[in-house]
Amino acid sequence: MTGSSDSDSQDGYLTSEYNSSNSLFSLNNGNSYSSASLDRATLDCQDSSFFDNHKNSLLSTKVPRYISNDALHLPITLNYKRDNDDVTYTNGKVNKFMIVLIGLPATGKSTISSHLIQCLKNNPLTNSLRCEVFNAGKIRRQISCATISKPLLLSNTSSEDLFNPKNNDKKETYARITLQKLFHEINSDECDVAIFDATNSTVERRKFIFEEVCSFNTDVLSTFNLVPIILQVSCFNRDFIKYNIHNKSFNEDYLDKPYELAIKDFAKRLKHYYAQFTPFSVDEFNQTHRYICQHEEIDTSLFFFNVINAGIVKPHSLNQSHYPSTCGKQIKDTIMVIENFINHYSQMFGFEYIEAVKLFFERFENSSEETLTALDSVVNDEFFNDLQNLIENNGFA
Ligand SMILES: Nc1ncnc2c1ncn2[C@@H]1O[C@H](COP(=O)(O)OP(=O)(O)O)[C@@H](O)[C@H]1O
Ligand SMILES: O=P(O)(O)OC[C@H]1O[C@@](CO)(OP(=O)(O)O)[C@@H](O)[C@@H]1O
After folding, report:
1. Phi and psi, residue 384, nearest 5°
2. Catalytic one among 235, 239, 253, 265?
3. Which one of 154, 223, 261, 365 has the lowest number of neighbouring Cβ atoms within 10 Å?
């Protein structure tokens, strides 16, 4: 059965319908970013920008006070227990899960992955599953450090220009190595839920990933079957993006770099990504499902979930679930927990994040701190306009 998932309406006054006819990801409008902007669709802004209008920022929205801090931290648990014999099989192999992340840099993929793991660990239905994140950036840093033996002069420096599209081969190599590590750890039964944390921003990359998943599942030497789950993380709010870029400037790529250089470098990286990114669509979901079914010669499961602007925008018809005709309890339970996490993300974590962003900008407005001035000089309207142009001209306008 195929269908879109429901979401709650508890936080209805904050959320906006995100339907396929006005969606960025809509097939009917030619996957257009410009003709299907989120701010028009959801925030009632006048221009047709990819980004939320700064003045109509989500930050001006009130975070509901009826959600206590405790509730924000407590993943919602469901009311029944997992049985010991819940393990299910596909083609005689024990099922495990692979979560394929998709999203531009600094949209919150790694952060949301750690929230999801927290949620799976806190739910009796899924707490026995061993979860692991396979981050392509981390593998890149490890390999670069080992190769150049100067730990902090990483391949991210502008001289190597790793993120320039002309150097895509290098990025693909790191992604392949990361995937191989993931398959190896699944096959040696070291984890049950493997999260592939990379931008996976092009159709070609995703095609490659699903070809590899099919090869893994049909390989007589692999003991396990991977149930693929696609989790797309999107962020269209300028304040969120600016705040996230600020935080990214403190990650391992920039430990030895001054703040302003880090911001400039990351801003440049973002431009490269915006020039190439293709969002995952319902159409691509259907094509991928057909491909997997043909290749594995069975009716397989495939799931697609979205977190948009930290869960504040609801992706109703974008989320897709395809359960096979004979679907084991373990798959149903795990998907239910993940779906529940997606539907309640704003209450569990999103609002707390908005509070943090608000605080950050309050501090920003009342200070003349050099670091924050540097941020403003790089991540400004001109920068967002550049990103907008890049996304419109990358074949999806
Ligand atoms: N949902 C979120 N909750 C809390 N912080 C977030 C969230 N999304 C992004 N951030 C902030 O933005 C920074 C970058 O997010 P990250 O998860 O590393 O993005 P990505 O993995 O997509 O590159 C994080 O360090 C965090 O400070
Ligand atoms: O190869 P893709 O899919 O672009 O993803 C990997 C890249 O994503 C990035 C994008 O910034 O992730 P991360 O921020 O998690 O470190 C790079 O570090 C990393 O090299």
Report:
1. -65, -35
2. 235
3. 365
Please state the atom number of ligand 1 nearest to the C-alpha of residue 244: 12
Domains and CATH numbers, the chain: 2-396 (3.40.50.300)
Q: What percent of the chain has pLDDT over 70?
A: 74
What digits encode the pLDDT tens for the residues 8-36? 333 322 333 333 222 222 222 223 222 22
ipTM for the predicted complex comes to 0.98
Q: Is 171 in the pocket of ligand 2 (CB under 6 A)?
A: yes
Residue tagged 């975070």 (tokens): 63
pLDDT in tens, 64-109: 543 443 434 444 444 444 444 567 778 788 999 999 999 999 999 9
**Spatial separation of the C-alpha atoms in residues 248 and 95, rounded to whole Å:** 35
Residue 197 is among the residues annotated as catalytic for this protein: yes
CA of 276 to the centre of ligand 1 (A): 21
Sequence-distant (≥ 6) Cβ neighbours of residue 244 within 8 angstroms: 106, 107, 108, 235
Determine the Cα–Cα distance for residues 310 and 312; give it in Å rounded to an integer: 6
CB distance 101 to ligand 1 below 6 Å: no
Q: Is 235 tagged catalytic?
A: yes
Q: In one letter, which amino acid is 261?
A: L
In angstroms, the CA 244 to CA 108 distance is 8
Report residue 24 as tokens. Answer: 């960025």
Closest atom of ligand 1 to 105 CA is 23
Whole-number Å distance, alpha carbon 87 to ligand 1 midpoint, is 33
Residue 111, sorted as left (phi over 0), alpha (psi -120 to 50) or beta, turns out to be alpha
